[in-house]
């Protein structure tokens, strides 16, 4: 198995970019079921990384249907320790315009409890701090890559995650603006929190597609798709800058899950040990 430490989780449009060469596909089994798709071994300018289409090939899983635990577990099982999440979002603030990228540093969970969000349950208890859900050194590296790629980008901001697949009502959108959130999306929670539990460096590149619906202007799904096409061009430039840098100069960070498990080891069952062996592996 290739010694690959960096992975991108994103939409299917990412791996179809001209800059990326798909070399192989890896099927990974997990105690939580199957990930969204086989893990793709990819290459950009001779630098290998893994890619996982979050919604499956052809985009057939809704945000609530994505098996986030299987996705993160599968990547950790393959030896990944650094995850770049590329996600389409709506903007909640005037300064974050469509086609801009936002390197968020916080998440607000506004989902409705439908998603499995922890590796520590069903007989095993663990707690990991999510005070800093994003690895800040990785966030800065990705921001710098955006700058080198010539992509208009912003360092910092909160991402509020809603259930979806429906977009917000105008009343809801105004409430979220009142929270001070920068962008709104449907997928990065519990993804970011699970990566934290697994001791992985995680950071989001949020690609703005529209102003949600708080602004007094109507935006159709087709208009959003048109902006997404433009964003993918920017994403290609970003990936060409970010991946070689992360492969050649790995992010240095300290995992915060080493002392997470509270349950006495004598109570660990075989399936618990299988999970912990991967999740707690350094």
From TrEMBL:
GO terms for molecular function: S-methyl-5-thioadenosine phosphorylase activity. Substrate binds at residues 186, 210-212. Phosphate binds at residues 12, 54-55, 87-88, 187. Its EC number is 2.4.2.28. It catalyses: S-methyl-5'-thioadenosine + phosphate = 5-(methylsulfanyl)-alpha-D-ribose 1-phosphate + adenine. Pathway: Amino-acid biosynthesis; L-methionine biosynthesis via salvage pathway; S-methyl-5-thio-alpha-D-ribose 1-phosphate from S-methyl-5'-thioadenosine (phosphorylase route): step 1/1. GO terms for cellular component: cytosol. Residues 5-243 form the Nucleoside phosphorylase domain. InterPro entries: MTAP, Nucleoside_phosphorylase_d, Nucleoside_phosphorylase_sf, Purine_phosphorylase-2_CS. GO terms for biological process: L-methionine salvage from methylthioadenosine; purine ribonucleoside salvage. Keywords: Glycosyltransferase, Purine salvage, Transferase. The record marks 168, 221 as: Important for substrate specificity. Pfam families: PNP_UDP_1. It is an enzyme of class 2 (transferase). PANTHER family: S-METHYL-5'-THIOADENOSINE PHOSPHORYLASE (PTHR42679:SF2). Belongs to the PNP/MTAP phosphorylase family. MTAP subfamily. Catalyzes the reversible phosphorylation of S-methyl-5'-thioadenosine (MTA) to adenine and 5-methylthioribose-1-phosphate. Involved in the breakdown of MTA, a major by-product of polyamine biosynthesis. Responsible for the first step in the methionine salvage pathway after MTA has been generated from S-adenosylmethionine. Has broad substrate specificity with 6-aminopurine nucleosides as preferred substrates. This is S-methyl-5'-thioadenosine phosphorylase. It comes from Peredibacter starrii. The gene is mtnP.
